[in-house]
Amino acid sequence: MLQINMKLHQQVIDDLCPGETVRVNHTDCPSGEDTRRRLYLTRQHGEASKVLGYCHNCSNSGVMSKGYEAFRDQLHTKKSASTQVSSKVVPPSYLITKLSDFTIHGRSWAITNKVTQAMLDDYRIAMTGEGKVYIPRYDEQGFFTGYQLRNVTPNTREPKYTTILSDRDRGYSFVHSNVNHPASNFVITEDTLSAIHVVEAFKKQGRTNVAALANHGVRTNIQLLELCIGYSTVVWLDNDSPSVINAADKMARTLQLMSDGAVDVVDKQYSDPKHYQPRKILDILEETCNG
Ligand SMILES: [Zn+2]
């Protein structure tokens, strides 16, 4: 049995809360290149100084106990997410819009998430003066409804995610490459980046008839589903746990009751769209609708 080199995943490990599991690609996996995030990293609930790794590709495991002091130090001052809602929300006054001006952690975030300068421009993603990634939210009419800040700097006392919403936000974001051309197909994703990657994949084919709806989580949102009534719709969540797989099925069943359009769910072997290249996104969607 080989030991997994946990140090290569130090940044992810530092961010893990007790009981939390994340999936990453196993760097240098001895069973071949892992592009399906088959390495599971879990911080133990009872013994929070210990992070266990297990790769479902090579079946090797690893353990990491070092570096926990810094984590414990911030544990009581930092929550992993915070949300604020108010009647009027405007974007931060100072935003860095050029990828080359992002901090090193910001650029690393962009590479990991396959975010390009063109995508920053088209979807108004930026970096704040505090070095956080800014991702705005828009509704189906193109109105700004709030934003999320992603803390990409390791070892800070700030939460990982901060969400600032106006009271007109209805819990989803609408992503479309051409608002003048009404969409006839919808893809429901968990997060904005996945929605953007779906729309971009179709845009590369010259197709602007597909819109994606970021559900911001896995709970069924009736107001989001209402937008899909009568249209061909695919539900594509991360499928990284049985509860998410159930949530996707529930969303699809609910929409089927409301709609006479076709409703399909992406096979549970696939994680969410942001982990795939454009060609693969299109292949998965075709397989989903014709399979
Ligand atoms: Zn492996």
How are the elements arranged and paired?
Layout: H1 10-14, E1 21-24, E2 39-43, E3 51-55, E4 61-64, H2 68-75, E5 81-86, E6 95-96, H3 104-112, H4 117-123, E7 126-128, E8 132-138, E9 144-151, E10 161-166, E11 173-175, E12 185-189, H5 192-203, E13 210-214, H6 222-227, E14 232-235, H7 242-258, E15 263-265, H8 278-290
Parallel strand pairs: 5-10, 12-13, 12-14, 14-15
Antiparallel strand pairs: 1-2, 2-3, 3-4, 6-7, 7-8, 8-9, 9-10, 11-13
Helix pairs in contact: 5-8
Bound molecules: zinc ion.
Descriptive overview:
- With 291 residues, this protein is an alpha/beta fold.
- The chain folds into three domains: 6-75, no CATH class; 81-166, no CATH class; 175-290, Dna Topoisomerase Vi A Subunit, Chain: A, domain 2 (3-Layer(aba) Sandwich), CATH 3.40.1360.
- 26% of the residues lie in helices and 24% in strands.
- The protein contains eight helices and 15 strands.
- The strands form three sheets. The protein has a six-stranded mixed β-sheet with strand order 5-10-9-8-7-6, with no helix packed on it. Strands 11-13-12-14-15 form a five-stranded mixed β-sheet, sandwiched between helices. Strands 1-2-3-4 form a four-stranded antiparallel β-sheet, with no helix packed on it.
- A hairpin with a 5-residue loop joins strand 8 (132-138) and strand 9 (144-151).
- The protein starts with 9 loop residues before the first helix and ends with a helix.
- Bound molecules: zinc ion.
